[in-house]
Amino acid sequence: MAHNLLKGKKGIIFGALNDQSIAWKIAEKCHAEGAQIVLTNAPIALRMGEINKLAEATAAPVIPADVVNMDDLKSLFEKSTEHFGGKIDFILHSIGMSLNMRKGKHYTEIDYGFNQKTMDISAMSLHRVLRTAWEMDAINEWGSVVALTYIAAQRVFPDYNEMADAKSLLESITRSFGYHYAIKKKVRINTVSQSPTRTTAGSGVKGFDGFINYAEKMSPLGNASAEDCANYCVTLFSDLTRMVTMQNLFHDGGFSFTGVTAEVIEQMEK
């Protein structure tokens, strides 16, 4: 049931690829809650994905942008503000890619050239987006930016590889830029640390099926779905969370603060 939490608000959604994407679910939910949105992704992702279906369903234009290209980002904000007829109220950053994982390289033998690209795409891209918006004064006062992260930024998950480092950097950028943007324009910036979710990217992590089952047993409420995440992000884009900024917000059914559950103990004792 919609509550019109985003009625009159305008936002940019980065990272929707197909209907398995968390960004896809968030775009749908933002539209249902009354927001106008622009969809964007890298040109190659637009060719591979099914974003045009989402664009039609949400009445949203698709504007290609490579997040490591400052000219592309400037063009994205120019075209978005022109489309909206004004500034933006919210941004979703749902971007991550590990070249070392794609190439099957273990964390102890990563290719440093690949690693630099991973950091640039998965973490520094948030800084680039925020810097572009900052310099163009593209976000309204009390606007909201949310980036998706994962608990591997704080804890070791061996097969998450260099993406753990990238998520740590992403969360640090959130805090640092969040301070400056709050002072300047009262724009709030947060990360949402989501449960393991069956997305195209997530399913590429080695041992993912086993881990998602483990996380389900370790979470008192169970794993949070992509739809649950979309609902949470809507609240962060809304005016109900105006005083929340620079936070890493766990959205994982309690996994992050659970030492062990009875279900896991029972499983280990079998």
Give the overall shape, derived from the CA principal axes.
Answer: globular
- How many β-strand runs? 6
Helix content: 40-55%
Distance between the termini: 43 Å
CATH architectural name:
3-Layer(aba) Sandwich
Give the ordered list of helices and strands: EHEHHHEHHEHEHHEH
**Relative strand content:** 5-15%
In summary, what is this structure?
The protein has 270 residues and is α/β, with parallel strands linked by helices. The chain has helices at 22-32, 43-48, 51-58, 70-84, 99-102, 112-136, 163-185, 208-218, 226-237, 262-269; strands at 10-14, 36-40, 88-93, 139-149, 188-194, 248-251.
Give an overview of the whole structure.
Helices cover 46% and strands 14% of the residues. It is an alpha/beta fold and 270 residues long. It has a single domain (10-269), classed as Rossmann fold. It has a six-stranded parallel beta sheet with strand order 2-1-3-4-5-6, sandwiched between helices. β1 (10-14), α1 and β2 (36-40) form a beta-alpha-beta unit. The longest helix is centred in the middle third of the chain and has 25 residues, at 112-136.
